[in-house]
UniProtKB/TrEMBL annotation, chain A:
It comes from Devosia aurantiaca. One of its GO terms (molecular function) is ATP hydrolysis activity. This is ABC transporter ATP-binding protein. One of its GO terms (cellular component) is plasma membrane. SMART domains: AAA. Keywords: ATP-binding, Nucleotide-binding, Transport.
Automatic annotation (TrEMBL), chain B:
It is a multi-pass membrane protein. The chain crosses the membrane at residues 87-108, 115-136, 177-197, 228-248, 268-292, 304-325, 331-355. The keyword Transmembrane helix applies. Its main location: membrane. It is found in: Cell membrane. CDD domains: TM_PBP1_LivM_like. This is Branched-chain amino acid ABC transporter permease. Keywords: Cell membrane, Membrane, Transmembrane, Transmembrane helix. Pfam families: BPD_transp_2 (PF02653). It comes from the Bacteria. GO terms for cellular component: plasma membrane.
Automatic annotation (TrEMBL), chain C:
Pfam families: BPD_transp_2. InterPro entries: ABC_transp_permease, BCAA_transport_permease. The chain crosses the membrane at residues 16-36, 43-65, 102-123, 190-216, 237-258, 270-297, 309-329. It is a multi-pass membrane protein. GO terms for biological process: amino acid transport. One of its GO terms (cellular component) is plasma membrane. It is found in: Cell membrane. This is Branched-chain amino acid ABC transporter permease. Keywords: Amino-acid transport, Cell membrane, Membrane, Transmembrane, Transmembrane helix, Transport. One of its GO terms (molecular function) is transmembrane transporter activity. Belongs to the binding-protein-dependent transport system permease family. LivHM subfamily. It comes from Devosia aurantiaca. The keyword Cell membrane applies.
Amino acid sequence: MTNPNVVLHVADVHKRFGGLHALADIDLQVEEGKTHAIIGPNGAGKSTLLNVIIGKLAPSSGQVVFDGAVLTGRKPFQINQLGIARVFQTPEIFADLSVLHNVMIPALAKRDGMFKLNMLRALDSETGIRAEAEDMLEDVGMLARRDMLAGSLSRGDKRRMELAMCLIQHPRLLLLDEPTAGMSRHDTNTTIELLQKIKARGMTKVIIEHDMHVVFSLADKISVLAQGRIIADGSPDEVRGNPKVQEAYLGGTH
Amino acid sequence: MTNLMSRNDLLLFAGFTLVVLTMPIWLAPFGAGYPDLLQRFMIFGIFAVGFNILFGLTGYLSFGHAAFFGVGSYAAVWSFKLLTLDAIPAILFAVIISGLFALVIGYLCLRRSGIYFSILTLAFAQMSYNLAYSVLTPITNGETGLQLTLNDPRSLDAVLGQSVAGQPVPNLLGQPLSGYAGFYFCAGFLILAFFLAQRIAGSPFGMMLKAIKSNQTRMQFTGFNTRPYALSAFVISGMYAGLAGALLAVTDPLAGAERMQWTASGEVVLMTILGGVGTLIGPVIGAWLIKYFENILSALNDQILARFWSFLPDGAADTMVAITGKFVGDGWFLTLGLVFVIVVIFLPGGIMEGVRRIAGMFRRRSGSSPATRTQPAE
Amino acid sequence: MFDVIFLQFLNGLDKGAAYALIALGLTLVFGTLGVVNFAHGALFMLGAFCAVTVRMLLTMETVTIDPEQLSPWGSPLEIREPLVQAWLGDFGAVLVNYSVPLSILITIPIMLLVGIALERGIIKHFYKRPHAEQILVTFGLAIVAQEVIKSVFGPNPIPQPMPTDLRGAADIGAFLGMQANIITYPIWRLIYFVFAAVVIGGVFAFLQFTTFGMVVRAGMADRETVGLLGINIDRRFTIMFGLAAVVAGMAGVMYTPLLPPNYHLGMDFLVLSFVVVVVGGMGSLPGAVAAGFLLGILQSFASMNQVKAIVPGIDQIIIYLVAVIILLVRPRGLFGRRGVMEA
């Protein structure tokens, strides 16, 4: 059972809210360098699962192990320092700061750790970090907007910037919560291209998504969640052919 | 210097220094060119600059900062009493004590955010105030206030063989700090305080504070522990408040508990908001304006008003005296409250936002920038 | 020992009742409008000054100087004749005697108007703005209100006598079958407690048993959904603000015989009531009431000499200390819900 390539292991996780069994017996193994998608109809428990992984919710039983370290009970910043970055469903960005600063902040977190009292050092002297951030913005095609206030960006741009904020930390694991939610077809396609580009770099990703187009263009492995349980697990083709999945999920949409 | 500060920052700092140092000259025509008032400008300027590091940059609204101001005053007076009449040790002592006090209170209060944080700071400040009036009387001398006496031990002065004749007053290396000497002493500290605040705002640390204000969740998921950042900002602003309190004790060595009351905490909030929260210069301007108008308006009385309105026919003049009389003298706080309400409703960014808007209007009129200009950051 | 404890318990009731009433209004406003109202203490103070005004009007007198008669000091005797008595005879005297409770009749419409004007004029523009700005604008309003009162009524407290029949103390101990004169309690305080209980009960009944109250409660739980139902929740919320102002105002009126009102009465009570609200749990009405009484009673016990001998100064800080401990240990207060005002 122990696969040396597994970097994230969600082991026998249960989560109950009062009488509601939101997650039951979840066992997930995410392999290094792979893109693992979690799909399922609304209310299947996808976001709950993500929140359990990231430490925002404590599981009722079971645990989440990342590269040998138990994530359960750790604070979000500690989890990030282990090398996990997260893109939110609604972009969580520093709306009052410039795009460039938004991207410099995670770079500084990567370099300086969770706290550094460098209050007399000039930000302008951080030329290395600045150059790194500019390269990153170039990568996601947003260099021209670096001096804009992040809050004034379009939704698609906010998402791309948030992605840049995660990527600049070179995380070992990237969690994406519906990265194309609420996006136009065009923005969705640009995002997919961007994610495929990252995929080429060999970064491990967990994607939660209900847009099939996105999932099948990106995922190496798919887990299907329905009513808090994993009902299918496998390669895109296996999942596509699984009658249980078609009944629970694909049947409704296709 | 230039490699540490950008050109704009340097210009701002130089301009600020110049404005402060020449205050006795350019404020004279406004009836404010005397040391006593100018010292208060400096002291409350420091208080507001420090408060802005917490509220303006980090976004935590404290309603208890007067406690640190008061602690600074008490600490300074105790230093005068026990050690020496020299101002520098008193200020160092006050800043350290208020910093420690802020560390403890900040550690507890910052476990909560939003309104809960505000109420916690308020509760701690009220506790300090009530205790200063009651059981802590041996330290604070209760309602009378802590003052210097001829019989104070002043051990350091005693060792150095210095003695005072008459009422003891604080000094700097033996030089008295009365009049303009006192003003320039305080002005030096304001300039230093401003310089430090400018450096903090322009540092990676300062950017983190702004990021905390902007989005705590993202900050957490970015790998920063926000609490030590917020606590540092809290302690720094507490030390600023302690410095201001100590300087007030230097210019007037009598520390009373009323300096710690929550209305005094409210005053520094007013200053910061009025000037422009989150800006460097705004809080200083807010402090100056409030102290200036407090001084001018509270000194006005009905005779002066009658002279002012004397160009009107008798009946109208009397009415105007009666109306305006409500807003000056003891009624100055009414004016302050009204101005404050109006500012919060119409100009939440304070005077600095007003300045920006007016500047923006001129720029648009002169057509130097295209209408489609995107909104720049900061 | 039991009688001492019972007495302190009683002593805490009237102050606790005042805290509970103010905190109830604060919570109503916060729960419905989502506004942190720092001007709420000022409403309490305005109510108190309604009572002052009514009494001033009722006790207006004509002064005629009678040169025929001399006062004991040898100056012409001033004959003062209260107008109300001149017009209404004995009934006028009763009016003057009962000026404080009677003021309530006038206070209700006045405070309702004040509340509605405040909400429509200023507060409603702040629903969408950050809590910090709500605190700031209402803080400014509180300053304005207290300074207006100061300039009209002067800075000194203005004592309000209670009706002559209601002075003195009730022998509660004897009533409960204990020895006479061990537990006596001022009648007016007892009245204040009963009055508070009636008002609190009234507010809860109003919210519980009327359709209006049902809609408001639904709005407190989930404003957006109620808005989607096509119910004009805003108008109801305006009335709730008015109601909160009325509750605060009445609490202020009835408190005047216990504490002569002055212009900073509101600020004094505001800080404490906020602490009460936070201890009870932001947005919880039962929490506000329970915490109000709890803190009032705790304060009363902390003022006992026996307690002060053990912990000096405890009476000065007990309320804040309790607040700090509760906030740190139970961040959402005694009855608070999750996620209220966290950011």
